[in-house]
Amino acid sequence: MLPQLCRPIVSRYTLRQLSRLSPFQPSLQPPLQPPLQWSHLVRYLLVLVWLIPWTPAVATPAATLPVDAVQPALPVHPELLALAAQAPQMTAPVIVQMLGDGAAVEEEITRLGGVVTQRLGIIHSLAAELPAGAVADLGRVPGVRWISLDAPVESHTSPAHIRYYLQGNPPGVDAVAQATLPMTETVPTAPRLANYDQDRDSAPGLLIRRGGTVDSDAASGQAQRWRLGPFNTDMRLSGSSFVQLYAAMKDFAPGKRGKLWAYVYQVDVNGQRQELIATGSLSRTWRSSWQTAKIKFDNVDILVDEGHSLELVVTVDITSEDDMWLAFGTRSQPAAYRVNLQDALLSAKNFYLVNYPVNAEGDTTSHPILPVRARKPKIFTLPNFDTDRDGGPGIVVKRGGTITSSDASGKIQRWRISPFQADTQIGPNVEFELYAATKSFRKTKFAKLWAYLIHRDAEGRLIHVLGSGSVEADDWGETWQQKTIAFKNSTYAFPAGHQLEVALTVDDTSERSMWIAYGSGLYPAQLKGEFWALLPQVFLDTIGARTVWDKGYEGRGVRVAVIDSGIQPDMPDFARESGEGPDSRIIHSEGIGTSPNDEFGHGTFVAGVIGSNGSASGGYYKGVAPEVDLINVRVSDAWGGAYESTVVAAIQWVLEHKDEYNIRVVNLSLNSSTLQPYHQSPLDAAVEVLWFNGIVVVASAGNNGSAEPGVIYPPANDPFVIAVGSTDDMETATPNDDVLAADYSVFGLTAEGFFRPDLAAPGSYIISTLADASNFKNMFPYYHRGVMNSSGNLVKLNFQASGTSISSGMVTGAAALLLQARPDLNPDQVKYLLMTSATPIADEAGAGAGSLNVAKALEIALAYGNNPIPTANTGRPVSQLLTTGSEPIQWNSVNWNSVNWNSVNWNSVNWNSVNWNSIAQSGTAAANTPAAGNIPVGIGHTLRPPMALENDELPSEDLPNVPEPEQPGEPEQPEEPKEPEEPGPDPDPDPDPETPAKAIYLPLLRR
Question: Which residues are identified as catalytic?
Fold first, then answer.
């Protein structure tokens, strides 16, 4: 009912928002009750845009004007005129830029039945609401320079989705040559849908013939298999799961009935099937195009052994009316298997000491370090594992051992847990429970056992003794005694690949050596503790932030304004640890027309990426600049909705208070929903004023990369600001394997020919601060991420998400680090340093200059010494809403006297477009106005990302001038698939609420 209600009264961009509404969670849509104003409807339509994956629908071209095109007869944005024609009686929010003092314009707005909602002096404009049909009349009023839609603004963060992708052979390779295809965690990168099975038919995708079963030969074409790689630890598969793929009837025949079957098997180390884990099917009448097929598997709970793997088999039921095609292995048609897998080590509390393999005659010297397993031993007899030490039961440990004793001496026994597959926390007060006796069961003998809990690295080197404990008795009796040794350790975290070790010795004051019984179900010896997997957070190493910290720069003294949904003020992540100044590093909070509290959660999350100190997670989930000061400027409502006018008002507030709070950087992790050239965008004009006033502006490129390739919305389309796209760091510290987050990060040329984004930064599956009492906290619990506190209790104070919002925050934090090291930098120099130091990403044009490398940026900045640092933005024209030459606005809207002219490289602006006679040149501004002979001529229309310095060489400090880096050619756009033209429904819906999808590297502890 909602689309039918809105279609007659909304413009193109509101219809686009309607297409993104989520069908799976209608409760998140606020109720619509008449009477309903258009402006309120648009605000509600946006509440879920940040969360809903972008649908690959054909985008309608925006009604925009090129810079050099002839302006319309009326100074009104074409979309606004279209709205007026469709629904003249509806209330339209607008931004009106004026000439002169504007009093007459304000009076005319009132006469036409409108109301002024905000005065935006920064761009000499008014925000207003008036009947859409009156827009043309207002455009004819003298003193009106330009009227644009007061467009909704969207935050761009999406909850993280993890899945195994179904991959195929390279194009041209026959599937029969690889009957079992890989199932990997890597997103497909091929843009084109190749024919993977030339022997079956010549059609796109993969043909599967009717009548197959799970036992069919893949070469017959009646079944297709994919397999995961072997697990390197015991894994627990639990809950429901599903496979999601693209399918169609052969030859895209419409109206035919087809049924798909899918099976999941456990496969052993030899590739032999062990057991059928789950079965699912999907039957429907298919259309004449690719359709998303989601096959759900029922709840299961099964342990998959180390070295084993999973196999997925897909067949077509014999009752189907034709064979079927599967599309997979491309960016446009990504097929995936989503499953909840937990590391069995982390999902267990008891870890049993075993001698593996169990052999009654086996000698412990052949296994000086025995494994600790999550499974209780099945054998009930107590074998003699150590025939070389004595002939008694169990294992003998001789008196006088220490932690450094040799294993072969018999004075110590060690057990190690298999390497954990994720960064892992161990809870406090771990216990060691075992059965022991004095040798030969001699009672009335004093004996004392010591046990140590040890952290070792991947090579077995001792890193840290977490804790130790002992148990003693004067009389051990004539039988096995069950004893518990408490380590009294604190909560501790260790990296993936490292191990825990239990070491057992007998004190030299003991009167006898001792026997230890273990490895049987009758006398199970075990380590009892709580473990929690910390999800990978490697972006700080990927971008080089820790290297910068080691040099003493963590953002201290630099102040960053975050214009967003607010920042929760009482979060431990924003506490000041140095003891200098206020307890909180949020030094001011301002709400533009609302309270400054974060009811949504997005602003707190982004602020955490910029400057969290990680206190809520024991120092684990930190931001890029953990000592930076933050200024909270809230613009959006509890669902992330805002208008351009509100954001412009926030930018105006920053300009007015920049000296009071010494604001050096502004983060805008948001985008307008209306496409227009930067010369016509009020939002772009406002951010340029900040830039010219010496404030670095960082903006998210946008998450519409898959839905609207190449479409760049304000403010990211402005060539002055730093526009940031997203990469996936692949959970490795090195940036060399990073890839563009192609499923959402947008890139392309603007209407004026500028390539965006400028650079990229990690933005996929990032964990940051979770605002309490926010919608992030209340509505999306699956994406909460927790740690154990000092008491061992799980506290979920973090959130995991993806999006260019996050990448923007990382670059903002990087700018703060540079400004701490070099406070003299102006915005153009900061932009130059970040771009010229970026790590190039091969074959990824969407990353701009490359992936953020703040460590290299700092090296370059410091290497220049007193030599001038080059600047970005040279030759770019300022917004025509600020200067037009023949019809300049009244410059009393900008406090030019507040500009630090000496700190801004004004040669980067094409001042030929400025009518200097219209500017009141006084004071510092007049004294430092560029001379006519020094003004560069020409307009640079295309931004080409600068290359890194050749061979990573830094400029010599004795060079007075360093030339600009060579500009490479325009980045190549990825090739779009020819078939199909319409990919079909959303390939990536949010996970089934009952089916949390996790991959092996993201285990969760069962609680």
Answer: 564, 602, 805
